[in-house]
């Protein structure tokens, strides 16, 4: 349905990061048990209707974590996923995945996970992205079939984690459509489902955001959804943002009275482009330092790094670190004082 490209990231150690579906960064499943068996979420022209099975819709943290795990297994080509049959083996990989995010499986957790996963497997997605001139949509159920022994008479290590779920083809396609990399160390420290939603919504936005963007509270209410009033939603959202910023401090977001504003920030998992930019900048700084040392020797004046750093701190150079450093080194090596070097920079003169 979408013709987007993946967010490219470097090859990191296994399970240093995971992937969440792009759709889950755009709209949200319920946070509490909903009163109806279907909900509608909106984000711009995107509209998604989630319809539950005979019980109710999936809600809370565990359906989100399962979808993140399934998306990660499919994206990374893990052996627990069979791409021919679209079958996921809920073997030890799922258990280990939950342990990575500080969730241990026991009787209490199992009673929560079991119905939530069953609800997710039976859930249907109706996705449309319509404009005045074009209609575009896709509909699917999450799983075609599943076979899970919920520890009836088996030891824990030989039951829940040795079962399978056959995902529908369209659901697999949806998980493969430009999934968003997320940091597992951050996921492990977020307890509420809304904080998870806010986290991966922000990190995807930051992957392409180039200028400040503002959203009304009503827009966010339609996107994230809530069974509470808009006033209560604002409180919950602000709390989720506060939780996210503790573990993702580079996230630049402001919650105002009328609008929520986000500003260009680093993604939580560095993209390949970001890594290359940092490496290129580091290389330029090293090369610049080497040239500066050579120039200083040729001028017969040794300029210490401490002296260079002290003068640099007085310059307002923004992103122009390399030109500013060259200006300082050349000025000091030529016999200018630090004050003279600073004054020349402020006048726009380059030494």
From TrEMBL:
Pfam families for the chain: RepA_C
Protein name stated in the entry: Plasmid replication protein
Organism: Bifidobacterium mongoliense
């Amino acid at each position: 349905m979408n013709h987007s490209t993946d967010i490219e990231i470097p090859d990191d150690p296994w399970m240093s990061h995971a992937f969440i579906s792009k759709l889950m960064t755009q709209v949200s499943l319920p946070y509490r048990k909903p009163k109806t068996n279907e909900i509608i979420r909106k984000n711009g022209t995107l509209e998604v209707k989630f319809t539950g099975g005979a019980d109710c819709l999936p809600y809370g943290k565990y359906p989100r974590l399962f979808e993140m795990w399934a998306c990660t297994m499919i994206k990374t080509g893990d052996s627990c996923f069979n791409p021919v049959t679209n079958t996921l083996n809920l073997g030890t990989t799922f258990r280990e995945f939950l342990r990575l995010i500080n969730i241990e499986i026991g009787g209490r957790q199992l009673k929560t996970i079991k119905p939530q996963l069953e609800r997710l497997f039976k859930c249907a997605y109706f996705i449309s992205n319509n404009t005045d001139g074009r209609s575009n949509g896709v509909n699917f159920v999450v799983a075609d079939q599943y076979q899970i022994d919920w520890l009836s008479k088996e030891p824990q290590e030989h039951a829940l984690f040795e079962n399978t779920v056959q995902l529908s083809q369209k659901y697999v396609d949806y998980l493969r459509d430009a999934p968003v990399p997320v940091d597992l160390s951050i996921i492990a420290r977020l307890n509420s489902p809304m904080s998870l939603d806010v986290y991966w919504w922000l990190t995807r936005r930051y992957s392409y955001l180039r200028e400040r963007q503002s959203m009304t509270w009503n827009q966010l209410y339609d996107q994230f959804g809530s069974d509470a009033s808009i006033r209560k939603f604002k409180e919950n959202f602000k709390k989720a943002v506060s939780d996210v910023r503790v573990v993702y401090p580079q996230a630049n977001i402001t919650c105002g009275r009328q609008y929520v504003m986000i500003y260009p920030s680093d993604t939580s998992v560095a993209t390949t482009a970001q890594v290359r930019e940092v490496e290129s900048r580091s290389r330029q700084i090293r090369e610049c330092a080497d040239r500066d040392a050579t120039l200083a020797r040729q001028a017969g004046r040794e300029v210490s790094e401490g002296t260079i750093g002290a003068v640099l701190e007085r310059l307002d150079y923004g992103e122009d670190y390399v030109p500013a450093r060259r200006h300082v080194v050349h000025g000091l090596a030529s016999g200018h004082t630090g004050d003279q070097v600073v004054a020349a920079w402020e006048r726009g003169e380059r030494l």
